[in-house]
Target: 1-deoxy-D-xylulose 5-phosphate reductoisomerase
Amino acid sequence: MKKNVVILGSTGSIGKQALEVIGWHRGSLRVFGLAAYRNIELLEEQVRAFDVPYAAVGEEAAAKVLQERLKDVRTTCLVGEAGLLELVRHPEADLVLVAVSGTAGLRPTLEAISQRKPVALANKETLVAGGSLVMKAALANGVPVIPVDSEHSAIHQCLNNENRNDVAKLIITGSGGPFREASFEELQKVTPEAALRHPTWQMGTKITIDSATLMNKGLEVIEARWLFEVDYDRIEVIIHPQSIVHSLVAYKDGAVLAQLGWPDMRVPIQYALFYPERRSNNLKQLDLASVRSLTFEKPDLKRFPCLRLAYEAGKIGGTMPAVMNAANEIAVFSFLKGEIPFMSISAVIAECMELHIPQTGEPDLDGILAADRWSREQAKKVIKDRHGG
Ligand SMILES: NC(=O)C1=CN([C@@H]2O[C@H](COP(=O)(O)OP(=O)(O)OC[C@H]3O[C@@H](n4cnc5c(N)ncnc54)[C@H](OP(=O)(O)O)[C@@H]3O)[C@@H](O)[C@H]2O)C=CC1
Ligand SMILES: CC(=O)[C@@H](O)[C@H](O)COP(=O)(O)O
Ligand SMILES: [Mn+2]
Model:
């Protein structure tokens, strides 16, 4: 029996690589549903290439155009968030890969879990905003949430068959981004073009800017806290410019396990699609002699305050991580549009966090979504009033 896979965000960086992986394993995996926001040209190509029964897009008009273009094949087109939810809850869907960007992943992830569908989770914002809710639901429904994010996939692999009580700390590696060696003065003048030139990974625009500010590491710390139930004092970030060691787990006896490989998302994607099985592929094997040296250094929280803000938001908990995440999304897109300078990204987030009175404890979905909306409005206002947007 083939596994029916649904991909939310199929036209993005992770989605396209997931389809490539599925293409290698057509005997075991079938693409059952695809969702994009507005890129109907690529979505149509993907539907035809994989003979996909269901496709979803963000807006009604795009869905109509797509349905018309696909009238010679038997594909049903769905629309909006309701379309995503219908797709993931379909009785024939076996595994849902959540690879949309931003908070749009939260509701579909919860829906998949409530329908007892295993989730391969690339979208880290879902756990940042709603980690407690998602992991509680996964536990209650006995549903695995298999990480796709490279660091969390590495940690998942290093934890396999080990006793969780023996873990001393998780060590998340990060490349340091394109400005690892930039001075404070140079950071003031960073352009979107320069920030989009990641040194080791090819990714979507939003995560690439997050890597440049180190917010990506901050989001990953919160993601790890929820996925692996380890508190913030035992999650460390280390800068590793080569992106070969994808993360590590330190155990109480002094042993440290790491997962290594070339920086290639197709490895963690394949791992998540087949977990707990491992499959062969034709990817280039790691050759450490050609890498020659692996280096590590502490992150600089003064030049990269976003990482500090994420630890703060995580430790405050409640709705604060959702507020931080939403403000970051607004600030990143504002920077990309040339409205605010690079260093204002962290300033906007900090202001929104200061203004927020967090709902503590474990907020429900409505509480999280309300905090997310509040923060987006607040961030726009802060940008307009104080950062020249
Ligand atoms: N890229 C990477 O290597 C990694 C990514 N991640 C995480 O994975 C997620 C995806 O990243 P990435 O692939 O880089 O992002 P991209 O920006 O490349 O792709 C985003 C995808 O989501 C779709 N999309 C966006 N909003 C919606 C929505 N509201 N409804 C439906 N579809 C939507 C886009 O559709 P359209 O094309 O039509 O706009 C596109 O298919 C992010 O959360 C990121 O942090 C984690 C680790 C590594
Ligand atoms: C590929 C992946 O998992 C990204 O999250 C990656 O880690 C981004 O690069 P940085 O390490 O520079 O944030
Ligand atoms: Mn990552």
Q: What stands out?
A: The chain has a mean pLDDT of 97. The longest strand covers residues 167-174. The first helix runs from residue 13 to 24. The pocket of manganese (II) ion (ligand 3) is lined by residues 149-151, 220 (CB under 6 Å).
